[in-house]
Design brief:
Helix content is about 45%, strand content about 15%. A hairpin with a 2-residue loop joins strand 3 and strand 4. Strands 10-9-8-11-12-13-18-22-21 form a nine-stranded mixed beta sheet, with helices on both faces. The chain is elongated. The protein has three domains: about 150 residues, no CATH class; about 120 residues, NAD(P)-binding Rossmann-like Domain (Rossmann fold), CATH 3.40.50; about 270 residues, NAD(P)-binding Rossmann-like Domain (Rossmann fold, 3-Layer(aba) Sandwich). By secondary structure, it is an alpha/beta fold.
């Protein structure tokens, strides 16, 4: 039976427009005859010739045919008939009848005879319009209820009974592959609660928990435009308690040609729940800061660097130079830039920030006004095992880039740092703290370049971060590995982090370490549980979580400020300045040179020197603890 229905659906979906037009004209022909018969009480007057019943209907058909074509009535999909289609049909019929009335007036003025009785024109208008609408609605109902019956579908509730919610229901109704049956709207508007919209009741959204506990809802679609992330989180938390999968409707701006399709409704991702309220900034500040500037970005193919590229590419820069030594990621970001603005004044350079000769050539060639230094090694366990490389890239690479910036008159140097540089417990964090100390001391040593540091925590979705790792483990069937049940981390979206970097850049006078409001820390174990539930799996039944133990150098809790540090407020709510100890440049330069010179020494010798430069560096869960 299902196979037969599918064949019928397929045939229906490919009915050509000329058949629809032919059927509509047949209705017009029959309606005009019916109007003539109604006018005469179904008794043909003796003075009427049989030609009247042939000619007048053909006149109606001819006029309707013209307006059907003008308003493209034949190409309206019958099974998707909606209010707009009904209005189009009304207008086409109305214009046709007006045309006939005008023709009647002209005929009366010339021949003193009506071409078609006025009563027939009026009756035909209503009869034709009613039959055109009835057969379309009947066809739509047959398609939805008989060929695509709701009894085989999963029940679904829509959060939001506004325009987006109703549009979502219609998108589900008209999609032949949709397996959902909308049984309820949920809304907070007291004017809508208790009402029925398109045969679906509207329920108080505050009673979501009790409603889900009593119903058989399989999916909940959030269809509220400009909904705050905290609200999405609250709704999802309730839904997951009852194993209800959650989906979300994208913003109207992302609808295709202003129309919502079923395929655009996506499952809620963990990133949606960790997002925060959008940043409201004066874009003109950032635009003025980059206007007519040559900007160089190191690590431009990485997670942070590439997002800085995406945000600057929309602004009035002069030249944009992308520097990275990773060929394939650079290829992808180059293609992305090409698709956005056809590489307008964008130059991609495969180069290593640790190569003094290469960086000198690039600086000499482009003479950048602003530098964003995002190139760095960031994976804590790997850097515990590769101490020399951590110092080479994060310390020596930063020193080379910073020194060349002063040499070639760069106006502003912005370094991307990390919360792991605060009271570091690992090599990676200590190397970034040393880089911070170096560029801050260099800032006060000269007046040519303003050196600014931005410091923030983990960014969602960055390469190798916890969320992509968990997602991959879930897709492979588990187990999901968590290092410690109590470990927590701060999270920020890449977009938000880079927005704040650009804003901090406009504020900096040189020597500041800007820290960002990271919100609340998130327990990683809870994050894993939520991701499993969002995937529609049951913890302990479909997939397990495995506690593996802290990795070398890993903290239970991340910090954004050292205990000795204070913060200074800025003009922007989410950005503060860390009030930190400053070091004399001669002392720092000597210590850093000694550290870099140890590149061929053993790891313990290098780490011992790092601990001398950063006394607060206390190793944890690491072989280097014996040095403390």
């Amino acid at each position: 039976m299902n196979r037969i229905n599918k064949k019928i659906v397929k045939r229906i979906s490919i009915v050509p427009a000329w058949i629809v037009l032919l059927f509509d004209l047949c209705i017009v022909y029959g309606s005009s005859i019916l109007a003539l018969l109604l006018r005469d009480n179904f008794k043909i007057p003796a003075h009427f010739s049989s030609m009247v019943y042939l000619v007048i209907p053909l006149i109606f058909v001819a006029v309707r045919f013209v307006y059907f074509l003008i308003l493209k009535v034949p190409i309206l999909m019958v099974r998707y008939t909606n209010t707009k289609d009904a209005i189009t049909l009304f207008i086409s019929c109305f214009l046709g009848s007006i045309t006939l009335i005008i023709a009647n007036i002209i005929s009366f003025q010339i021949e003193h005879l009506f071409l078609i009785p006025l009563s027939v024109v009026i009756m035909e208008f209503f009869i034709t319009l009613i039959f055109l609408l009835i057969y379309r609605l009947a066809f739509k109902t047959y398609y939805l209820e008989v060929l695509n019956p709701t009894k085989f579908k999963k029940d679904i509730a829509i959060m939001g009974a506004g325009v987006a919610g109703i549009t979502t229901k219609r998108a589900l109704d008209r999609d032949s592959k949709s397996q959902y049956n909308v049984i309820a709207f949920l809304d907070e508007d007291p004017k809508k609660i208790g009402k029925i919209i398109e045969s679906v009741p509207v329920i108080n959204a505050s009673k979501l928990s009790s409603y889900l506990s009593k119903s058989n809802v399989s999916f909940l679609i959030i269809a509220i435009q400009k909904i705050l992330p905290d609200k999405v989180n609250d709704i999802t938390e309730i839904a997951l308690q009852y194993n209800v999968k959650v989906m979300i409707v994208p913003p109207v701006a992302k609808w295709i040609n202003g129309e919502l399709s079923f395929k655009q409704i996506k499952k809620v991702k963990i990133e949606d729940l960790l997002e925060r309220d959008p940043i409201v900034v004066d874009e003109s500040l950032v635009n003025r800061d980059v206007e007519n500037q040559t900007i160089m970005i190191s690590g431009a193919a990485g997670s942070i660097g590439s997002e800085i590229v995406r945000q600057i590419i929309k602004r009035p820069y002069k030249q944009l130079i992308l520097v990275d030594n990773a060929e394939t990621p650079m290829f992808y970001i180059q293609n992305e830039c090409r698709n956005i603005n056809e590489l307008r004044d964008i130059y991609t350079e495969i180069a290593d920030v640790c190569d003094h000769v290469s960086m000198d050539m690039l600086m000499q060639r482009y003479r950048p006004d602003t530098v964003y230094h995002a190139a760095a090694y960031k994976h804590v366990p790997l850097m515990e095992e590769n101490v020399c490389e951590a110092v080479k890239v994060n310390v020596a690479g930063t020193r080379i880039f910073a020194d060349l910036s002063v040499q070639y008159g760069v106006k502003k140097f912005v370094m991307i740092s990390t919360d792991k540089a605060v009271n570091p417990t690992n090599v990676m964090g200590a190397s970034k703290r040393i880089a911070e100390i170096y560029i801050q001391s260099l800032n006060f040593q000269q007046n040519a370049t303003k050196f600014i540091t931005t410091r923030f925590g983990n960014v969602l979705g960055s390469n190798g971060s916890v969320i992509p790792t968990f997602r991959q483990q879930i897709e492979c069937g588990g187990p999901v590995t968590v290092t410690h049940k109590e470990i927590t981390r701060y999270f920020m979206t890449i977009s938000e982090a880079c927005q704040l970097v650009l804003i901090a850049s406009t504020m900096g006078n040189g020597g500041e370490i800007f820290i960002f409001d990271m919100g609340h820390s998130v327990r990683i174990y809870d994050l894993a549980v939520k991701m499993i539930k969002l995937s529609g799996l049951l913890l302990g039944k479909d997939i397990n979580i495995e506690i593996t133990g802290l990795r070398p150098g890993e903290k239970l809790y991340e910090e954004l400020l050292a205990s000795q540090e204070n913060t200074i407020k800025t003009g922007f709510q989410k950005i503060m300045i860390a009030k930190v100890r400053t070091y004399p440049y001669e002392e720092v330069a000597k210590s850093v040179s000694e550290l870099v010179a140890l590149r061929n020494a053993d790891s313990f010798t290098i780490v011992r020197k790092m601990k001398e430069i950063v006394p607060e560096y206390i190793s944890r869960n690491s072989e280097f603890e014996k040095l403390d």
